[in-house]
Amino acid sequence: MSAQQGRHFLHIPGPSPIPDRILRAIAMPIIDHRSAEFAVLGKQVLDGSKAVFKTKQPVVIYPASGTGAWEAAIVNTLSPGDTVLMAETGHFATLWKQIATRFGIEVEFIPGDWRRGADPAAIEARLSEDKARKITAVMVVHNETSTGSTSRIAEIRKAIDAAGHPALFMVDTISSLASVDYRHDEWQVDVTVSGSQKGLMLPPGLSFNAISEKALAASKTNKLPRSYWDWQEMVKINATGFFPYTPATNLLYGLKEALAMLQEEGLDNVFARHKRLAAACRVAVETWGLEVLCQNPAEHSPVLTGVLMPPSHDADRFRKITLEKYNISLGSGLGKVAGKVFRIGHLGECNELALLGALSGVEMGLAAAGVPHRSGGVQAAMAMLEGQTEANAPKAVA
Ligand SMILES: *Cc1c(COP(=O)(O)O)cnc(C)c1O
Question: Which CATH superfamily groups domain 9-16+267-392?
Answer without folding.
Answer: Aspartate Aminotransferase, domain 1 (3.90.1150.10)
